[in-house]
Amino acid sequence: MSRIGKKPVAIPSGVTVTMNGTDLTAKGPKGELAMTFVPEVNVTQEDNSIAITPVNNSKRARSMWGMQRTLVANIFEGVTSGFSKKLEINGVGYRAQAKGSTLNLQLGFSHDVEFPVPEGIKIETPDQTTVLISGINKQQVGETAAKIREYRKPEPYKGKGVKYEGEYIFRKEGKKK
Length: 177
Prior knowledge:
The protein has helices at 3-6, 59-80, 138-150, and strands at 9-10, 16-20, 23-27, 32-36, 41-45, 49-54, 83-90, 95-99, 102-106, 113-116, 121-124, 130-135, 161-164. The protein is α+β, with helices and mostly antiparallel strands.
């Protein structure tokens, strides 16, 4: 039994929700997002909330129940306040600079890495070692942050590389004589 799925999702003030069969569209102050529900769940819109129930008691229906409820909650949070991730760059000479629709990264390679900013994502660099990624789609923000981190993951000896804010890097001891 899904404990998350049992709770109905409250529709925040300032958000208009349109249900068309299995499609849901939410429009808020930050933008508009849409999703399609899987056929294993039933969706009903009450006065100020959306309730999701499984169609039957199959394993797939029960596993989709909580996930679909979380996706709806993420859509509502995205169109009202948005999502953001912060990356930190550690290393001598490692830096980042946002230029228009590209992010220029200097990560110790013989060349600069030019990362094209995807549609719907905003990238800022408050200083040379910090990258702020924000947008209304949680999945897209996380995927963009993961792609940037993938260029130079933090290494365990000196901790050089691109890491998430607050991420713990397991440090190893260097070579002994």
